[in-house]
Amino acid sequence: MLFTAIPDIASKARRTITIAIAAALGAGVVVAVQQTASAAEATLGAAAAQSGRYFGAAIAAGRLGDSTYVNILNREFNSVTAENEMKWDATEPQRGNFNYNNANRIVNHAIGQGKSIRGHALLWHQQMPGWAQGLSGSDLRNAAINHVTQVATYFRGKIHSWDVVNEAFADGGGGGRRDSSLQRTGNDWIEAAFRAARAADPGAKLCYNDYNTDGINAKSTGIYNMVRDFKARGVPIDCVGFQSHLTNSAPSDYQANLQRFADLGVDVQITELDISGSNQANAYAAVTRACLNVARCNGITVWGIRDSDSWRTGQNPLLFDASGNKKAAYTSVLNTLNSVTPNPSPTPTPTPTPTPTVTPTPGPGGPCRVAYTLNAWNTGLTSSITITNTGSSAINGWSLVFGLPSGQTITSGWNATYSPSSGQVTARNVSYNGSIPAGGSVDIGFQANHTGNTSAPSSFTLNGNTCSRA
Ligand code: G2I
User: Fold this and answer.
1) In DSSP terms, which residues pair with 276 in a beta bridge?
2) Are strands 267-276 and 245-247 parallel, antiparallel or unpaired?
3) Looking at ligand 1, which residue's alpha carbon is closest to its atom 21?
4) 84 C-alpha to center of ligand 1: Å?
5) In the chain, what is the straight-line distance between the N-terminal and C-terminal CA atoms, in Å?
């Protein structure tokens, strides 16, 4: 019955996956399992941490009283995802009435155990509360963006990565968006969600997450094109999640698919891994190896702990059996994590918005430097601004003044307030970024309409000092 949650994953995808079995059973898998580590770690989390990665599990608040479950969780995993507790129906059961009780049971457990947290999922066409299912158009859009803002703000500072939007692309050959009430609010609903999430929690990596995207296919290519477009236009996206609900093997181009996304300048994460079938141990090793081989693969999350905890009832797709014993697949993953020298070494996490390294000496124009990038299209543009404190003491509270070229009007912004929307604009800090330490930076930005003039402001003044330009 649970498969009806995403019926598309069942028949067609499995056929595709099955066809790929032979190809995926390459020599690399065998080598990975045979290698032994010089300094083997004894748990999945510790073994993954050797290369700066996490190894996580989706967990359920309702199982935190089960000692077998909690012992495995505490021992093996250094990241958790709430399997259901952060979804829209769980966190906003009535409009504007938020309930974080079960999510907090997971968050508090994770923090108490020093584990990082993946947030799942801010917007998804499934698990919408009844009240939101009855909405459409701008009413739904406003409710959805408010939901993103409220939930991401509530958990600000605690989430390593958020699945901001989940499963928004259609299955089949078209590579387009899935029809849903959210999609019918306008094609820009995904980028609106990402902007709202960035404004609410600038420290979290923001991910797009989907399934049947584990190889190079029409669906993953549709997502690839969206990410490329987002990067080009400055829409804040940091990572792509590959759910990886697999049967018997990963597609033969699994690693190549991760790598092509990483090459767009986003991190990649294996977010909901579970693998059924008799080739399970080898397939788990292959997926693990692929992540290790991709520098921007941050980590792996399995979708449950014991087979009896899995949504895939009866398929035994996880690393521990119903009694909590380690399976062959567990040993295969652990050995792979211990045996592979990551090449190249992974990107340190979390780093949602890389900021340039600066030497904290005053620039020629005053104790600030501004880097300004602008992406324009027909009638709109996105500007990203990095303000660097090049002075020797912290700035506490700031206003950045600049002249917006004629015809440009700000329509929305993030990480600052902008007033007025045209002419001589003052961008003021918001509550969480008012302090810029010596040598530190903040990233802000805005979207604007334009009437043909897409030039950048000619100068920037921070607290009355003219800034140098990067
Ligand atoms: O469907 C598998 C996963 C696909 N990607 C997104 C994930 O969020 C999704 O997870 C599953 C959970 O593993 C299930 O546990 O999402 C399902 C739908 O939200 C979850 O199932 C639901 C049942 O449909 C509800 O009847 C039940 O009350 O789990 C709920 C809590 O046990």
Assistant:
1) 247
2) parallel
3) 2
4) 6
5) 56
Q: Which residues pair with 97 in a beta bridge?
A: 94
Q: Report the DSSP beta bridge partners of residue 383.
A: 374, 446
- Give distance in angstroms: CA of 83 to centre of ligand 1: 7
Q: Which atom of ligand 1 is nearest to the CA of 121?
A: 8
Distance 127 CA to ligand 1 centre (A): 8
**What amino acid positions are annotated as catalytic residues?**
167, 272
Q: What is the CA radius of gyration of the chain?
A: 23
Give the pocket of ligand 1 (CB within 6 Å).
Answer: 2, 5-6, 83-84, 126-127, 166, 211, 243, 272, 311
Q: What is the pLDDT along the chain (470 residues), one digit of tens a residue?
A: 233 333 333 333 333 333 333 344 433 333 333 334 346 999 999 999 999 999 999 999 999 999 999 999 999 999 999 999 999 999 999 999 999 999 999 999 999 999 999 999 999 999 999 999 999 999 999 999 999 999 999 999 999 999 999 999 999 889 999 999 999 999 999 999 999 999 999 999 999 999 999 999 999 999 999 999 999 999 999 999 999 999 999 999 999 999 999 999 999 999 999 999 999 999 999 999 999 999 999 999 999 999 999 999 999 999 999 999 999 999 999 999 998 654 444 545 444 444 343 333 333 446 899 999 887 777 878 788 989 999 888 888 889 999 999 999 998 877 788 888 899 999 998 777 788 888 888 888 888 889 999 999 999 999 888 999 98
Buried b (16+ CB within 10 A) or exposed e, 112-127: eeebbbbbbbbbbbee
Residues 6+ apart with CB under 8 A from 54: 45, 48, 78, 79, 116, 160, 298, 299, 300, 301, 349
- Matching residue, tokens 């919408």: 128
